[in-house]
Amino acid sequence: MAAEPTAQESRSRDLDKLLLRTGNLVGPTFEPGPALRDDLKEYGRVLVVGAGGLGCELLKDLALSGFRKLEVIDMDRIEVSNLNRQFLFRLEDVGKPKAEVAAKRVMERVSGVNIVPHFCRIEDKELEFYSKFSIIALGLDSIEARSYINSVACSFLEYDSDDSALEETIKPMVDGGTEGFQGHARVIVPGVTPCFECTIWLFPPQVKFPLCTLAETPRTAAHCIEYAHLIKWDEVHSGKAFDPDDPEHMKWVYNEATKRAELFGIPGVTYSLTQGVVKNIIPAIASTNAIISAACALETLKILSGCSKTLSNYLTYNGAEGLHTKVTEFVKDKDCLVCGPGVLIQLDTSITLEKFIDLLKDHPKLQLSKASITHRGKSLYMQAPPVLEEMTRSNLSIPLFDLIGKIPKDVVHATGTTTKNDKKTSCLRKLRVVFKGVDGIADMDTAGET
Ligand SMILES: [Zn+2]
């Protein structure tokens, strides 16, 4: 009679069916066997970005999928309102960093897994930090944060002289997102599939109600609330800014919205709906997070092990009415500034680093202000922190050509801020610099590029 399986064996039983056997959907280099399973444990390093609703699920799913080396980054602290779905947190954890508590809880429950937490902003980490991971799993709720991580992962990408992506420089990502009963999971393989920026139009700017509807023909409770919030408040308070965190202000809007709703015979205005509309809160649904994270964890396993074809490349899930799920294959934007070969900038060898930084500000495609510049991992100039600024300041008056070792053609990275939809956002851009008249490189036609 066979011996009882150990806890460890029974935990990997289902995983073994994927990793120890071959199949019709496996990747071209897939080699099933215990060595693969052990390699994933040993070498599969996964970074989870975000330790909120999706991040908690992702950490648990990845740990239970056999990954041993996980890290998680999140800048938030735990709030009472998180506890209904961010299941790794307890009441006594309120006020503590999410990343630290999430890592601790998963390690307590899943033996053998090591999770390193990082309680900081994603922008606070250097590029080198991100470069050490095999894959990055995103559980975020902000477009800006996704866009930033995407630009970081794409910055590692290098192209050969035929403009094909070099496989060893590809840093894959899986990205999950949920909003109420809807969600998406996507696979981003920079240089192969569209990156986040290629399909940025999937996230249109927030739709606001037209003011004329609010003022003249309200039809819903939300219309009445927005009327009180956007129109009536200003009429009555001339110049005093509305503060969504001030309960008196919120109460005033609620009372005005109720009056208006009565006037038009519209039901449904409540205090909590008023908060929801004004603060633009969409209720988070725990089951949507669980479903989307499961899809992301599975794609992570597929990408790193080759045990199956991956999602190609965008799954949408909608559980609001019945259940609808669909996979769409989006295509790359060949002119993408982020995952493409990089913006080509032609320069004179005499251009100083300071002049170069100025030029990025006015460049029509980049409009990158306050740029910090790195070359092959070395900081040429850093705007912050002050100690690094001081250390690198003397480089400003040196020609860029000299700083990068008199190479006629190379890639430099610039981190700075750019303005998108009237909002300042951090971004990272890959720049291909080419120096005129060096080593027989002919002047290239870069009209409008410099
Ligand atoms: Zn792209």
TrEMBL record:
Active site per the UniProt annotation: 212
Any GO BP annotation: protein neddylation
A GO cellular component annotation in the UniProt record: cytoplasm
Entry-linked SUPFAM superfamilies: Activating enzymes of the ubiquitin-like proteins
Classification via InterPro entries: E2-binding (IPR014929), ThiF/MoeB/HesA (IPR045886), ThiF_NAD_FAD-bd (IPR000594), Ub_act_enz_dom_a_sf (IPR023318), Uba3_N (IPR030468), Ubiquitin-activating_enz (IPR035985), UBQ-activ_enz_E1_Cys_AS (IPR033127)
Gene Ontology MF, one: NEDD8 activating enzyme activity
Signal peptide, first to last residue: none
Protein name from the UniProt record: NEDD8-activating enzyme E1 catalytic subunit
Organism: Prunus avium (Cherry)
Lineage of producing organism: Eukaryota, Viridiplantae, Streptophyta, Embryophyta, Tracheophyta
